[in-house]
Each structure stands twice: as C-alpha cells, then as structure tokens.
Specification:
It is a single chain. The longest helix is centred in the N-terminal third of the chain and has 23 residues. With 282 residues, the chain is an alpha/beta fold. It has a single domain, classed as 3-Layer(aba) Sandwich (Rossmann fold), CATH 3.40.50.1110. It is built from 13 helices and five strands. Strands 2-1-3-4-5 form a five-stranded parallel sheet, with helices on both faces. Strand 4, helix 10 and strand 5 form a beta-alpha-beta unit. Helix 1 crosses helix 11, helix 5 packs across helix 13 and helix 9 packs parallel to helix 10. Helices cover 49% and strands 10% of the residues. The N and C termini lie far apart (58 Å).
C-alpha cells in the first residue's frame, strides 16, 4: 500500500520486505492451497506476491448456485456490483479492472466453460444507491453469483450503523430471493484511515452482517494490509497517489485472490452439457 509520508518509505521497506520473502519461499516449496486454485508452479513473479499471507487470510465461499449452473449449463455469469474499486478507478485500461482480470482468470482456469463477469461499478455510490439499481443492473443479467463491494462511501459519510445494516440486509435478501450466490467484499485497508473515526465500526458491522446472514466475506482489508507490510511491491505497483484507489498490480492481485476462492468453491465440476456442433459451411 502506498503511503504519502515519504520519510516512512525507507523504514517500512526495510522492516517489511522479509514478510513477502518468506511467503515466496513457501510458494516455491509447494504451499498448499485449497482445491481448485492455481497450482504452486504458476506462482511466479507478481502473482506469487499476491498470495503472501494466504493462510492468515482465508477465503472459502460456498457457491451452490454457481456450481449447479456451471454443471447443468456450462455457463457462469458473475456480476461485480460496487463503487470505484469495481469500476476500476486508477486502472490504466478497462481490461485492467478487477472484474476484467477475474473474467480472464476464470476462463483460463475453467476451460470449456462459458464465463462472463459483468462490471457494474459506479464510482462514489453508497450501499443504498447500489440496492436501488439491483433490479436493473444485476437481476436483468441473470447471474448466479454477485460480488458486492460496498460500505466504503457509507463509512466515509458516517451514515449510521443501524441505517446501513437495514440497507445491507435488503440487498442480501434481493440476491437470495433471485436464487443467486453472494460474496460481500471487506473494506479496503487505508494508510490514513484515522481520518475516518468510525471506519473500524463500519468494518465490524459489515463482518457481523455477513456472519449473521451466512454470506461469504472476501478479506480485502487483511489482504491489502499484508501487501503494505510486505513491501515486496513497489509503491508504484499497487495504489495511486490518492492512497485509496488501486493500480493495475493491485487490481490483478484482487482478482487472483477472488478467483482462488471461486474456483475452490466450484470444485471438480463436470460440465455435462453437450453443445451443438457448428453449422456446416459450403
């Protein structure tokens, strides 16, 4: 994670570089991941760094609707609903956003399946804004999995925990009523989150809602904090000058870690669909 306190860069780099170094040694030695994740042999370069601290940041969602859809139809549609992180603010191009990278990664890992990840990110939106557009932006796509990245705007605005809890429950109910699997995404780790005195309170609320509603929570906060403390990435690789929005390297790590969890949850799916042969041409 980038810090704009330039005097701290050198100290943090020296203190934390060893963390990622140890993780890479584990990967090289054959660090065991959950079933379905990419093999250790592919953990080269920056992708290996993305998985540092994976044992301390478990992500094991249950995705019965996605598994069933993939097995019965050979297709998996994912909608990424969120704000600027989902929209890809800070990425150098559309195909560098986390939903675009996630689509490419799932297609690579699930050959023969028809994979579509639809980006429905709108920068600056609140949880309420997203719930209000669920019918048009999410349900009409008929996904079997929704990844909902939210609460950051609400935490910054401090809208009130009780109000936010009602909004989150309403969104979760919408997804479940439609028969979709749902993954909630934890808030980002911010180097200057002290500017928002109730930030941890909102993170705690999101975690409680996820637990109470039995919804998987992607551990973005812990993961990003691990990146920051490892310093194996350069300041220019992960987060932009605002200290909030990810850059291409950060989005790729985000997508890879989400893909790890999704593919692991799908398991060894056998696609039984027989697709029609292409029409003969004269």
């Amino acid at each position: 994670m980038v810090s704009h306190d330039h005097q701290s860069h050198g100290r943090r780099a020296q203190r934390l570089r060893a963390v990622f170094g140890g993780a890479i040694l584990l990967a090289a030695a054959g660090l065991s991941l959950s079933a379905g994740a990419a093999p250790a042999a592919s953990f080269a370069g920056s992708d290996a760094r993305c998985r540092a601290g994976i044992a301390q940041q478990p992500f094991a969602p249950s995705l019965p609707a996605a598994r069933r859809a993939l097995q019965e139809t050979g297709r998996l549609t994912v909608v990424a609903l969120g704000s600027s992180t989902t929209a890809g603010s800070g990425a150098s191009a559309e195909d560098k956003s986390y939903p675009a990278v996630l689509q490419a990664e799932l297609r690579r890992r699930l050959p023969g399946a028809e994979i579509r990840v639809v980006n429905k990110g709108v920068g600056g939106q609140s949880a309420y804004d997203m719930v209000m557009r669920m019918d048009g932006d999410v349900l009409e796509e008929r996904p079997t999995l929704v990844i909902w990245q939210t609460v950051i705007t609400d935490a910054i605005r401090d809208i009130g925990e009780e109000k936010l809890a009602k909004i989150l429950r309403k969104g979760i109910t919408k997804a479940r009523t439609a028969g979709m699997d749902l993954i909630l995404m934890d808030l980002p780790w911010l180097p200057r989150e002290g500017r928002y005195p109730h930030y941890d309170d909102y993170r705690g609320l999101l975690a409680r809602i996820a637990q109470d509603q039995n919804v998987a929570l992607f551990p973005r906060y812990a993961m990003m904090r691990g990146w920051a403390r490892s310093k194996q990435f350069s300041d220019e690789e992960l987060v932009g000058m605002d200290g909030v929005h990810l850059l291409d390297g950060g989005y790729r790590c985000l997508a890879l870690r989400i893909a790890d969890g999704i593919v692991s949850a799908l398991g060894d799916v056998r696609i039984d669909v027989v697709r029609p042969a292409p029409a003969a041409t004269e």
